[in-house]
Amino acid sequence: MKNKTNIIFIYADDLGQGMLSCYGQQHFSTPNIDRLAGEGMRFTQAYGCAFCAPSRASMMTGLHDCHRGTWTYTRGGIYNQLSAGQITLREINELIHTTGLQTGANEVFLPQVAADSGYVTGQIGKCEWGFDTTGDRIRRHGWQYHYGYYDHARCHGFYPPFLFENGQMVEIRGNTRPDCGVHLDWESPQNSEIRQDRKGKAVYSQDIFDQKIKDFLQQHRNTPFFLYHPSQLPHGPIAIPEIHPEVKDNPNLTPFEKEYASMILRLDQTVGLILEELERLGIDDRTMIVFSSDNGHEVYALQQGRTTGRQQNLNGQPFDNIKTKFYSDMGGDIFNGNGGMAGLKWSSWEGGIRIPYLVRFPGVIEPDSVSDHMLANFDFMPTLADLIGVEMPAGKDGISFLPTLLGKSQQQHDFIVYASGQGPALVTADGWKLRYINQPEIFQLYDLKADYREENDLATDHPDLVDKLSQDLLTACDNDYRHGTPQAHYAAYPEPYT
Predict the structure, then answer these.
(1) Based on CB atoms within 10 Å of each CB, which residue in 193, 207, 247, 337 is the most buried?
(2) Residues 321, 310: contact at Cβ < 8 Å?
């Protein structure tokens, strides 16, 4: 057992490719994350989902998010009612366990693949997809140890008054804000003052997670483990205890932009801590680290005259996400966090779906290698099974990319599908992309290899290709394009919890 490969998966939140210096960020560097790329493999065509809930569900189930009836998510925030004394923890558990689709007896989740092979499994951070979850549900998914938030809405604040450890509430001394210290996105003198107000905000959540990660690594140094760290960073609203020295004196950034950059640099610090601890414990050479994100870029440094976000350009003209869409230069994103691609989180444009994906395994993966192998986040389950030498559960959508990590040729997906609010999309291995728009009902076709910015719709030029790909997409959506929307997977709480 001692010779088995340890696995650490670090999952950033709303981190576009362009926010990392190994993918081209110009205003600051991310040295520890870059080290993963420099000592491992960097993927250029990795896909998540349009936003966090489907992306996490997809990775945990090994299924894409356009199926009918595979999983549901609820509205986040039910644990706020626990903070307010309006509901008990027992009532929350009962509510979550009776809302939406529940897990079937034979369903297999990502951590179970490792646990069934003798691995210790641990999840530390922004737990599960939910948006609300419970300790029982996390255990059912295969996590033997779990610590963190059980409510994604509360993850929008970074100073939780309580978190959960193996289903038990743990109070965080000095954090007294019932809402975890959340605040508004837009920059203003008033909002800046709110952010700087430290009353009731004693302990930053990432600091807590760092210590729990170190504890887990030390405790299981002599046993094979699979540790999953879904971080809140750099999801907004922007919150950071102090501006990082790397950007403190950068004349090109506003104070608000420096705070946002510091959130990414704080995540980079966690990656450095993990690398340092693995070396100190003498297990670095038998540990594979994967670093990725749930979806593409989102704009959080919203500031008058600087950044307008996903809704409109700097001149106040709205994006319809059909003929007009977000580009960094038009929307004022100084960071170019989507790497020059179109769109942001929530959309089916490449900038909202394509994610950073780095894998480091000393002595196994060729250092400083770059791959254009097209992969999706649901491919990690078969890759994990392949790596540890166990049979892959039946009925899953993923393809192991272990051969690519080993420098070998391998099978490709013919295409990858994913959902969005406007409808599903499909990307082929040879670079064609089909977008289905539900209102109005149209198809758009792009040649990503020649047009990575998705500026030229070629649907009228290639009607036969549109017909073929639209049928492939429809089949992947279990014969109903509506399955390729988040609304198809939403489960509302009953009154009075809606």
Answers:
(1) 337
(2) no
